[in-house]
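forwarding from the other thread:

> can someone predict this with 2-acetamido-2-deoxy-beta-D-glucopyranose?

sure thing
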Amino acid sequence: MGSGLKPSSMSFIILLLNSVLLNLSLMASKTPDPTPAAWPLQFHAITFMNNSGTLQKIDLWYDWPNGRNFNIIQNQLGKLIYDLEWDNGTSYHYTVGSSQECSVSHLSVGILRPNWLEGATYLGQQEFDGFLCNVWEKVDFIWYYEDVITKRPVHWVYYSGYTAHVMTFEVGAVLDDAEWQAPAYCFKEPQKDDTPAVVSIANSGLSNGRLMWEMFNNASMNL
Ligand SMILES: *[C@@H]1O[C@H](CO)[C@@H](O)[C@H](O)[C@H]1NC(C)=O
Ligand SMILES: *[C@@H]1O[C@H](CO)[C@@H](O)[C@H](O)[C@H]1NC(C)=O
Ligand SMILES: *[C@@H]1O[C@H](CO)[C@@H](O)[C@H](O)[C@H]1NC(C)=O
């Protein structure tokens, strides 16, 4: 009397408790897939790029609060090309010095959002360039490798095979405002004989994620 629970109900409670604990441990072991770190709002990175054997060094200045992104592209033993993108869709591609080439393009998309990798599919871990990385793929557009420990990008590959190796990644670095001014010859009325220079520069600067994204979207729409 007064002992309360009968042995049978006692064992029922133990059974119940066991199954609760088992479920809890199962839930704990099923951790969600890691997600790529959002891009810092401002950073400077130096990347080495390989476009089907054509090598480039790119100084990338990402500046989200000011709605601008700069790719300063040194082609190996070749042209130095400035590829300045504004979030309103306008891009200036130009050279400086004696050649003074410039082409202006208007894309339908702004610069990459800091969270542009959101929704990417996790592919697991892989060692790349000597770093243990988490790897994601986004809509067959990009494969992205991020250092497991520091969360810094190490490497990415666009659908075209264009690859990036990240050499430096300085969070918070900002390029002086004066450097973002496209030269005066970008703003003069185009002359008829400008076309060859404009075409050569536009073709040599296939660098930025935004342009590739628009081309990719256009290509997917035509499928
Ligand atoms: C660049 O990529 C090509 C393949 O597209 C490869 O054959 C070549 O070895 C790469 N070059 C470097 C320096 O990684
Ligand atoms: C976008 O912004 C840049 C920089 O302020 C400017 O030079 C360009 O004319 C603008 N483009 C449009 C379409 O307003
Ligand atoms: C994408 O398609 C639009 C509309 O057809 C076109 O204006 C734009 O130039 C295309 N962009 C690229 C990068 O091919």
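The longest strand covers residues 42-51. thats all i got for now
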